[in-house]
Design goal:
The protein starts with a helix and ends with a helix. The chain contains 40 helices and 33 strands. A hairpin with a 2-residue loop joins strand 4 and strand 5 (81-91). 42% of the residues lie in helices and 16% in strands.
Length: 1263
């Protein structure tokens, strides 16, 4: 790997002289892992092959380097060439993904003759998107040239703008970005870019620069796409200062805006103006600049805000031809459409250079022999490190302008700063929650002559780290972060920036320096700092050398840190339990050897409790380990097992069917396989409280894993039951919590339980043993009250959705409880409240098992049909009295069972006739079993009501489904006829008001508005679905009229449920809602039925008419109202114009007899046609019998022969709409015969047609 990087990086030198591509890799180093307390143990970064590669290293010292603060872009430049390297991921030789810096652009940057690159800086620009979390949008590369030009480029080498601000070489480029103030009184600093010349300093406002760079980048993109010649970047706002009273300047730092205190203001006024100097009321705001060089060695400059107005730059134009060359060529110069002479003339036209505003030095550190080389400002702007030609590193106090520390022996040193924030866990937030987080400053010094990298604590801190590195490295410190960030946009951001990196050209490694905060607390002899270091070293040792972990833990002095170290050790993933036990035992022994008064009591108790838990874990693990030695057979009560088997035989078929449906093969993953419980999970779920071992109860805690560790070996027959129970009893865990763990694993591992034939007998033994423990069953329990112990079992069973496992647990617990009661009373048979509770619970669980077996039927549509509904006794009790019927109705719809098929299944209930479909046979078998257990909740009429409601609910979700028979009048059952018709009327009215009337009115208004009808947008259905929908509306309204005519004016009957489910509470069921509905207004329903028939006929025969126009204003206003309300309906006196319109429509729709017969043969929906013809017959008979001029005796006799309900039906008919009302009874008889042929026998109006035919025929047979 080292040779690969070296060979690639060796091409950098060849690239700078010729055009070659370079690569570099990124690695990270943390001082936490490398720091030790003896200088002889400091880590080394040297490469064994470094001596062989020394010849290729010195070339880097002649290059200009800049690393982005985000470490995602590196620029290497020399003379007039540069290479941009961006971060990318690649697969290394070891097969792991690693970060690399690979070249993304290389070429020539100089545009003026003879100019060279003198300074480079990378400025990442923040994204303006709200979804950004602190990552840069893009990075701008700012390059300074010896000609004085400053040019701005993108990562791909595209020139954005160029600026000539001064006609001297650019010495240094530096940037100041936004920093979040750590204290309320700290002045918020503005962003800026500072450009240092030999005798001038230019500062560009950060906001202006940010907006200009964004605008230029957008214009460049548009110009490149449109082929435009020139872009027009906006001018920059900058200030230019002429630095005076210094002989030479090498480097600078812009501190920002500062405000002097009143004392400092008076002091400066006295020094500058003498005794008679005047002082202003408030200190002025000033921009502070520090320069290093010669005469003086360090100079301090202060520019009063407002003393110089910002200048507007004359930005050099970047033509599209130059954009093209930057993208496609790095050798042939700028290519474009202009001629060479024109290009030269453009380059010679330099922009106007503004004069500088004089800025004298305020004061400095005079040293005639010393010459400053570089200055590096700390992140908090309070200190600065300065290097000089004497090999010293001086630490300056920026505010006071004095040197506070100096290091010797660092010739050609390179500096950087690391700022570390205090972690939240290292301070007691309870005592000082409002205190801000502390920050520590560390100065990083790289001495290339010595090949060493040191880290020093400031201001007077010791050296906290030293590393031996190469002698040709470069220390890269940006000193800024993202540009374009402010106090608003930085909220919630996590700005990821590396502070100090070391670039080694020998092996191409780029390493980041990371320092822990605790090193700033005191010197290296501090016990706390040493303990914190040992704590981190312990974490490292747990991954590699576990044997040394014990000695490291014992070396820690502070009890709190020692407890933290032990907690870290116990929570380790890979540490074996033997290692944890030995380390904890050794720590406990060392604590007991100390003076009792000096030992921390909480640490001693913690060690003792954790050691007991580790011993319990080891004992249980050994008991579950397969052992070949013979074990004593478990003592099982054969009588109880026989009785349990008899109970299982009662539900055997259902239990077998349930097992078959729930033990099908399914996809499983490797991590889901049963593995031993990790020791850290075991320790995290148990705690010692007042000498008692308790299981920690949390809302999201799953006890299944812990219960499996303790009891699954016993339930599966792989572990000795008695020995496991004795071990658990001796551990101190209460019997109640052991019972909860046992029930948790039993109820949550149902599939495994059903596969184990002996699991029931093992559960019986475990329950018997746990019940006999001290504290399990209250000694004062007399059997005539409910036992909390057994109530805990019943509660777990009724709440579980594992129906089979819950029933098996209840059966076993019932037998164990009955034995205890029998022993208590010493009688052959006794009556106990506890046993009554068990009988009700078992009956409920058996019912739920049968219901859950039915609900487990797979959907014919496969996975798209929806997931299986899971239920429990608790959910059924909380779902109200209609919960069972609601579950079954949803299943029947998912199975695609139509109302006719459902009626057939219910009629064949109890019969052994073979069915054609296997699916129907399975549904019949399971549905019959459920109906036998829920005879009241699943009575045929109740089930039909719920199925009809579910049918309409699903149709409302997808109206394209053909809405078949919405509701049926039910089949004969034990309920009264009044109950059936009341239920039928209520459900029909609810369907109409909730789902039907909205789309029905939309269809009517749409047909009234336009002749060419497209229902998709307004009604949400296609033409075929609308046609079926209107036919269903006719059927629903006719059913509603018939049910209303038959219902008796009595109070609504009660809804009955089974005795064991009488305590169900929850939402009101559909049946209860239907029975509470108000009676409908029959004429209003008939009025809507006429409209529905008209709409259906219009859609069926494709008639071109406006249906609502055939009704007067009263009729229109009555439509779509609540069917139980009283509305004004049309009377017998009809407007002649309306009659004419009706006759015209009737005449246009009249066909000959042959044509009518042909049409009748073509109609597919015979039921709807028969219903409409029956209404027509009723209107004709109503006219002949009730509305003719002469009421004859035969007419009266014919009315007398009809039942009262049929007479009411005839009186509701309106013959005024008939074009030919006078029709002989013989024709009406033939029409009724046709109707009977069309209608099926189970149709709601079939009996009505028979009564009419019988009355008409008997009238003709009489002389």
């Amino acid at each position: 790997m080292n040779s690969y990087r070296s060979s690639r990086l060796f091409n950098v030198n060849r690239f700078i002289l010729a055009d070659y591509i370079i690569y570099s890799t990124f690695f990270s180093l943390s001082l936490e892992n490398e720091l030790t307390w003896d200088d002889s143990d400091w880590g080394s970064w040297e490469n064994p092959d470094e001596e062989e590669q020394q010849q290729s290293a010195p070339w880097l010292q002649d290059c200009v380097l800049s690393l982005s603060p985000c470490s995602d872009l590196l620029v290497i430049a020399r003379e007039h060439k540069a290479a941009f390297l961006s971060a990318k991921w690649r697969t290394g030789e070891s097969g792991q993904e690693e970060m690399t810096l690979a070249v993304t652009w290389s070429g020539t940057l100089s545009a003026e003759e003879g100019e060279c690159i003198s300074s480079v800086i990378c400025i990442p620009l923040a994204s303006q998107k709200r979804s950004s979390t602190g990552r840069p949008d893009w990075t701008c590369i700012v390059v300074g040239f010896s000609s004085g030009y400053v040019r701005f480029y993108t990562e791909s080498g595209v020139l954005l703008l160029a600026q000539l601000l001064h006609e001297d070489p650019v010495l240094r480029l530096k940037c100041r970005t936004y920093e979040i103030p750590r204290h309320p009184g700290v002045t918020e600093q503005h962003e800026e870019l500072s450009i240092l010349y030999p005798a001038a300093l230019v500062t560009i406002d950060g906001f202006s620069l940010f907006q200009s760079l964004r605008a230029c980048r957008n214009q460049v993109a548009r110009a490149a796409a449109a082929g435009s010649d020139v872009i027009q970047p906006p001018p920059l706002a900058y200030k230019k200062w002429g630095l005076q009273d210094m002989d030479t300047i090498a480097d600078h730092s812009s501190i920002g805006i500062t405000t002097l205190s009143v004392f400092d203001q008076m002091k400066n006024a006295s020094i500058l103006g003498g005794f008679h100097a005047s002082v202003k009321g408030s200190p002025p705001a000033m921009s502070q600049y520090i320069t290093v060089g010669g005469g003086p060695y360090t100079g301090f400059f202060y520019a009063i805000e407002g003393s110089s107005q910002p200048l507007l730059s004359h930005v050099a134009l970047a033509v599209a031809s130059k954009l093209t060359s930057a993208l496609f060529s790095a050798h042939s110069g700028w290519l474009g459409w202009k001629s060479k002479n024109e290009e030269e003339s453009v380059q010679k036209q330099k922009p106007k250079v503004e004069p500088a505003t004089a800025l004298p030095v305020r004061f400095g550190l005079p040293d005639s022999r010393r010459h400053g080389e570089s200055i590096c400002l700390s992140p908090c702007n309070t200190m600065a490190g300065v290097t000089d030609d004497f090999g010293r590193v001086t630490l300056l106090d920026v505010a006071r302008g004095i040197a506070i520390r100096m290091w010797k022996g660092y010739r050609d040193a390179q500096l950087g700063w690391v700022q570390v924030s205090e972690a939240r866990g290292e301070r007691d937030l309870a005592t000082s929650p409002s205190m801000p987080r502390r920050h520590a400053q560390f100065l990083v010094i790289y001495a290339p002559r010595r090949g060493i990298l040191e880290v020093w604590g400031t201001q007077h801190g010791p050296r906290v780290g030293a590393f031996t590195v190469g002698k040709h490295c470069r220390l890269l410190y940006a000193g800024h972060r993202l540009m374009g960030v402010n106090s608003v946009t930085s909220q919630g951001w996590q700005i990821h920036t590396q502070q100090v990196c070391l670039f080694d050209p020998v092996n191409g490694a780029l390493r980041a320096v990371t320092i822990p905060f605790h090193l700033a607390l005191s010197d290296k002899k501090s016990e706390r700092a040493k303990d914190m270091h040992l704590l981190r070293r312990l974490t490292t040792l747990l991954r590699s050398r576990e044997s040394e972990a014990q000695s490291v833990l014992l070396d820690i002095k502070h009890p709190a840190i020692k407890k933290q170290a032990l907690e870290s050790l116990l929570s380790n993933k890979t540490a074996p339990v033997s290692c944890l036990t030995s380390v904890t035992r050794a720590l406990l022994a060392s604590l007991k050897e100390q003076d009792p008064e000096a030992v921390d009591e909480s640490l001693l108790q913690f060690c003792s409790s954790q050691l007991k838990l580790l011993q319990l874990y080891t004992d249980v693990q050994l008991l579950h380990t397969p052992d070949t030695s013979p074990t004593e057979p478990e003592q099982v009560c054969n009588t109880d097992i026989i009785l349990i088997e008899e109970d299982l035989a009662r539900v055997g078929p259902v239990l077998q069917r349930y097992t078959e449906m729930n033990t099908r093969p399914c996809v499983s993953f490797a991590q889901d396989s049963s593995e031993p419980l990790p020791v850290r999970t075991f320790l995290s779920q148990l705690e010692w409280v007042n000498g008692e071992l308790r299981v920690i109860k949390q809302p999201d805690t799953d006890w299944t894993q812990l219960g499996s560790f303790l009891f699954w070996g016993c339930l599966s027959g792989q572990s000795p039951l008695q020995r496991v129970c004795e071990t658990l009893q001796e551990s101190g865990i209460s019997p109640q919590q052991l019972l909860s763990l046992l029930l948790s694993v039993w109820l949550n591992k149902e599939k495994d339980i059903l596969k184990c034939p002996d699991a029931v007998s093992h559960l019986h033994t475990l329950l018997s043993t746990l019940s006999s423990m001290k504290g399990a069953v209250d000694e004062s329990w007399d059997g005539q009250c409910v036992s909390p112990w057994w109530q805990q079992v019943r509660t777990a069973c009724v709440q579980s959705e594992s129906s089979a496992a819950a029933l098996l647990a209840a059966l076993v617990a019932h037998r164990v409880a009955k034995n205890a009661i029998t022993r208590l009373f010493q009688e052959w048979e006794c009556v106990s409240l506890e046993l009554e509770q068990w009988m009700v619970c078992i009956k409920q669980l058996e019912d739920v098992l049968a219901l859950q077996t039915l609900l487990c039927l797979p959907s014919p549509q496969g996975p798209t049909g929806g997931s299986v509904t899971r239920c429990s006794v608790k959910t059924l009790l909380e779902s109200g009295r209609g919960g069972v019927a609601d579950c079954v109705s949803k299943l029947l719809f998912r199975q695609g069972v139509s109302p006719d098929l459902l009626r057939d299944i219910l009629q064949r209930r109890g019969e052994n006739e073979p069915t054609q479909h296997i699916c129907v046979c399975v549904v019949l078998e399971l549905l019959e079993c459920v109906c036998q257990r829920f005879p009241n909740s699943l009575s045929p009429d109740v089930l039909f009501a719920h199925c009809s409601w579910e049918n309409v609910v699903q149709w409302n979700k997808d109206p394209e489904l053909i809405l078949a028979q919405i509701i049926s009048e039910g089949i004969p059952c034990d309920n009264s006829v009044s109950f059936i018709y009341a239920l039928l009327s209520g459900v029909s009215a609810m369907m109409w008001q909730t789902f039907i009337v909205k789309r029905f009115s939309a269809a009517a208004f749409l047909m009234e508005k336009v002749s060419s009808i497209k229902f998709r947008s307004d009604v949400g259905m296609g033409d075929a679905a609308v046609r079926s929908f209107l036919g269903s509306c006719v059927q629903l309204l006719q059913t509603l009229m018939e049910a209303d005519s038959a219902v008796e004016e009595v109070s609504a009957p009660d809804v009955c449920v089974e005795e064991v489910w009488g305590g169900a509470e929850g939402p009101v069921s559909i049946v209860e809602l239907a029975l509470d509905q108000r009676s409908v207004h029959y004429p209003l329903v008939q009025h809507h039925c006429v409209l529905a028939s008209l709409l259906h006929a219009t859609m069926t025969f494709c008639l071109r008419l406006k249906p609502l126009s055939l009704f007067d204003s009263k009729g229109k206003n009555a439509f779509f109202r609540d069917l139980s309300s009283i509305q004004l309906l049309p009377s017998g006196d009809t407007d002649p114009s309306l009659v004419a319109v009706r006759q015209e429509v009737s005449h246009s729709a009249t066909l000959s007899t042959g044509a009518r017969t042909a049409v009748m043969m073509e109609v597919q929906d015979k039921d709807v046609l028969g219903s409409q013809l029956l209404v027509l017959t009723g209107q004709r008979l109503a006219f002949s019998l009730l509305h003719s001029q002469s009421q004859t005796k035969p007419n009266m006799e014919l009315l007398a022969r009809l039942p009262p309900t049929r007479c009411t039906w005839l009186k509701a008919m309106d013959p005024s709409e008939l074009r030919c009302p006078s029709v002989p009874l013989s024709q009406s008889s033939r029409l009724i015969n046709k109707v009977i042929e069309m209608l099926p026998e189970n149709h709601a109006q079939y009996s009505l047609a028979l009564h009419l035919l019988e009355a008409v025929d008997s009238f003709h047979e009489e002389p």
